[in-house]
Amino acid sequence: MISLSTPIQEIPRVGVAYSKKLKKFGIKTVQDLLFYFPARYDDFSEIISISQARNKLGEVACVQGEIIEIETTKSIYGRMAITKALVQDLTAQIYVVWFNQPYLEKSLKENDFICLAGKISLGKEGLYFNSPAYERINEIGENEELTHTGRIVPVYSETRGITSRWLRYVIKPLLYRFCDQIQESLPKEIIKKYKFLPIQEAVWQLHFPDSFEHADAAKARFSFEELFLIQLNVLKEKIKLMLKKAPACPMDAELMKNFTDSLAFKLTDSQKKCAFAILKDLEKTVPMSRLLEGDVGSGKTIVATMAALSVIKNNHQVAFMAPTEILAKQHFRTVTESLKNFDVRVGLMTGKDARIFKDGETTEVSKKSFLGDLENGQLDIAIGTHSLIQKGVEFKDLALVILDEQHRFGVEQRDHLIKGKKSVPHLLSMTATPIPRTLALTVYGDLDLSLIDEMPKNRKKIKTIIVEPSQRKDAYEFIKKEVAGGKGVFVIFPKIDSQATKLKEAIEKHGPMTGSFVPQHYDLKSLGINEVKALKEEYEKLSKEVFPDLRITMLHGKMKAPEKERIMLDFKKGEIDILLSTSVVEVGVDVPRATIMMIEGAERFGLSQLHQFRGRVGRSDMQSYCFLFTTDPSMLNRKRLKALVESDNGFTLAEKDLEIRGPGSLYGTQQWGIPDMAMQGLSNVFLVEKTRAAAKELLEKDPELKNYPELKERLKQFQTRIHFE
Ligand code: ADP
Ligand code: MG
Questions:
Q1: Structural domain includes residue 149
Q2: How far apart are CA 400 and CA 428, in angstroms?
Q3: Cα Rg for the chain, rounded, in angstroms?
Q4: Domain for residue 61, yes or no?
Q5: Same domain, 426 and 476
Q6: Ligand 2 centroid to 61 CA: how many Å?
Q7: With a 6 A CB cut-off, is 301 part of the ligand 1 pocket?
Q8: Residue 344, domain extent
Q9: Cα 491 → chain centroid
């Protein structure tokens, strides 16, 4: 007996080979297949006569007629099958041409009736249908049972070996058999309140809509449902956490004052406000889950340091995790520097080595002794990358976890810290990635938000300039002047090697390549390809030709950590004038003496990322500059780069990215596995707010969803699919 839960390989039209392909989309059962929704539709709903179609050159038309002739031949070079048919109805005749579909010869015969939908083109022999969608019909005028033509036709996102046509062919009969067995998952009250289509009708209308209004109504229902599931998910997590205990760390106001007095600068009001909210959270026995959000350079590290100090002085331990080793080391330096008079023992653990700062001195230690100190409570704060939470790292009494740019850490890693512990550490997560309101209310809905919305007073606005190719020389001259004044310069490249270099290297290694598709030439310029500049090549050029007298160094992800660290330090100290790099410097690196950020191939980066790069300069009271170079003159690209010139606000830019590139551009959303409909819903604040309110209301009534077994089951499936970071 076939049912909704039957594995798809048991469906005759699917079989083993296709079921393997479908599994790649996560489709395992009949129900999964019915919930595999189309990405868009083709509107073939208006059927016209062939004589009318003959007036629609260049447009899409749908007609019905009888096949008068049909023949398949080979193209001149014998590579391609061409099927040509003549079709007529009562009004006229028209040719139809299909390329490379030799099986048509068998499935379509003279005197067959057929429905066609596709583009009308003009060829040597007159007007013709160019590779239209088609299906056989019993008679002209039939439009009841059309699947691929003569209606609004679903188009699915396809991969190799699975076409939309095949999916329609498989899904439609399954809908007839099983659609009315699908159980409603949304609570009745919600369906009634928002006048949603019931699930069975919504599933049907999504695949084979009666009209675009019907399709929209069905989409609205599922957008709501998927966001609703996200909300239930995060709210449930939040409730779970609130039932756990965390070590209370009462705040010592005098200590905090001493600390801020010891700094070389005054905290901004925003920093104070955020620090206070965090310190207050730490006093509670409920674990804190707070996201500290602030634009690059807004000074989040010092706020985190205050939280750490408070916890340490309550005799607990802190873990401070950065996304890269460079950043971990930078945090180690900042933290040891700012806490040097507060008798705190700071440890740094990166891939291979470990260091401990104690009594004003830093010493290298073995990893083993580092881990021992951590376990015995001889260390107050451990700084590192995710290696800090790997197996074998035990804290004596961990009470606060600080995550810098948390997106880079997986959820399992965060869970690892909490698992099996009686007492759960507080969590402070920091990010410079602006989080639009809809995301704050969904994906980050389990976190409390603190926002540093003010820059340190001494900062000047960074001048951002799109540099035209003709002005490149001027930019170089300007750089020379700045360097002469002791300033540092970053140059960012989208890639390390150019295509040309790679080809050249390959040819040197393997000898000349053969075969008609391999370019014999590796000088792409002479082929008219204007390639984006690449790090290694430009290094040669800049260090030998453009700035022979300056100290130029490369930094990229393929280098070993100690080397990267040494270079960053030299740059910071002023022993390097120009640092050429890839996106490794994207987050967090702090070099106050750097005043120029020059970006090659700027079109290759998202706005938020460019804004991050720009945030590497302007970290002191000196005027700083951001030079944008681009090889892509398109309007869209101009528009994006202009937005960067006009705005220095990461939020505005993230919203702009959202507007220009869609929700997929938001940091992380690609990896989260959020379903398409929820993704579309994420640009709709009203919908997000509605779903949040609905989820809250439901969980207050029924926290375990006891009365909503279908919803509970759907939520369980949903949780295995998504993975927020
Ligand atoms: P981000 O928020 O991007 O992580 P950082 O914490 O690295 O920023 O701070 C950027 C720089 O600004 C650091 O050199 C830091 O010492 C400095 N800074 C932080 N707060 C202030 C302030 N209130 N006034 C002046 N400089 C500050
Ligand atoms: Mg930072």
A1: no
A2: 7
A3: 31
A4: yes
A5: no
A6: 57
A7: yes
A8: 253-283+299-431
A9: 25
Per-residue pLDDT tens over the stretch 335-383: 999 999 999 999 999 877 899 999 889 999 999 999 999 999 999 999 9
Dihedral class, residue 73 (left if φ above 0, else alpha if ψ from -120 to 50, else beta)? beta
Q: Rounded to whole angstroms, how far apart are CA atoms 117 and 113?
A: 14
Cβ of 300 closer than 6 Å to ligand 1, yes or no, is yes
Residues whose CB is under 5 A from ligand 2 (ion)? 588
* Amino acid at residue number 591: V
Does residue 140 form part of some domain?
yes
Structure tokens given for 277: 């909210």
Residues 699 and 235: their CA atoms lie apart, in Å, by 8
What confidence score (pLDDT) does residue 520 get? Answer: 41
Residues 426, 471, single domain; the answer is no
Mutation choice for ligand 1 from 267, 268, 302, CB with most ligand atoms inside 8 A = 302
pLDDT of residue 453: 87
582 falls in which pLDDT band (50, 70, 90)?
confident
Last residue of a domain, one of 647, 664, 690: 647
DSSP string, 576-624: -SEEEE-GGGSS----TTEEEEEETTGGGS-HHHHHHHHTTS--SSS--
Does the predicted model carry a pTM greater than 0.85? no
Ligand 1 binding pocket includes 319 (Cβ within 6 Å):
no
**pLDDT of res. 505:** 65
Q: Summarize pLDDT for 451-468 with one digit per residue, the tens.
A: 998 888 878 889 999 998
Indicate the pLDDT class of residue 725, thresholds 50, 70 and 90: very low
The answer to whether the CB of 405 is under 6 A from ligand 1 is no
Which residues face 358 on adjacent strands?
361
Given the DSSP bridges, would you call strands 113-123 and 81-88 parallel, antiparallel or unpaired? unpaired
Residue whose Cα lies nearest atom 22 of ligand 1: it is: 456
Q: What CATH number is attached to the domain comprising 384?
A: 3.40.50.300
Number of structural domains found in the chain: 3
pLDDT at 410: 46
How far is the centre of ligand 1, averaged over its atoms, from the C-alpha of 597 (Å)? 18
